[in-house]
């Protein structure tokens, strides 16, 4: 199993990960370290353990907010999908009605054409 070295709050940690996940793990560690550094800048030196716990809670808070937003978007997708399906069904109904009217008009025109053909004198040739 591959291992990578990451740095959190000035300390190096050796971590194992799945094959091909090295860059991903390093990126996650960099993001977490940025949280730690931001907190350190905001609250000052408060001790490594407390700082790490606060950063972890901040990350979990971001995750919870992202999950809440995903649920909102999923609900919105369901609503929009239903609305789209209703619009599509309405369009289909209107197309069917239009096609029926067009057929009726074509039959009426055909009747007029037949009546004109019957009323017109036959050409002499």
TrEMBL record:
Keywords on record: Cell cycle, Cell division, Coiled coil, Cytoplasm, Septation
Keyword Coiled coil: yes
Coiled-coil ranges per UniProt: 56-119
Pfam family, one: ZapA
Intracellular or extracellular location(s): Cytoplasm
GO CC, one annotated term: cell septum
Main location class: cytoplasm
Top-level lineage group: Bacteria
GO BP: division septum assembly; FtsZ-dependent cytokinesis; septin ring assembly
InterPro entries on file: Cell_div_ZapA-like, Cell_div_ZapA-like_sf, Cell_div_ZapA_N
Function description: Activator of cell division through the inhibition of FtsZ GTPase activity, therefore promoting FtsZ assembly into bundles of protofilaments necessary for the formation of the division Z ring. It is recruited early at mid-cell but it is not essential for cell division.
Subunit structure and binding partners: Homodimer. Interacts with FtsZ.
Protein name: Cell division protein ZapA
């Amino acid at each position: 199993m591959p291992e990578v070295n990451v740095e959190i709050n000035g300390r190096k940690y050796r971590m194992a990960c799945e094959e091909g996940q090295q860059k991903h793990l390093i990126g996650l560690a960099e993001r977490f370290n940025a949280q730690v550094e931001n907190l350190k800048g905001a609250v000052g030196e408060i001790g490594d353990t407390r700082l790490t716990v606060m950063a972890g809670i901040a990350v979990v808070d971001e995750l919870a907010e992202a999950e809440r937003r995903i649920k909102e978007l999923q609900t919105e997708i369901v609503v929009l999908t239903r609305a789209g399906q209703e619009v599509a069904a309405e369009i289909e109904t209107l197309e069917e009605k239009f096609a029926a009217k067009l057929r009726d008009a074509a039959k009426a025109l055909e009747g007029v054409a037949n009546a004109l053909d019957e009323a017109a004198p036959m050409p002499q040739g």
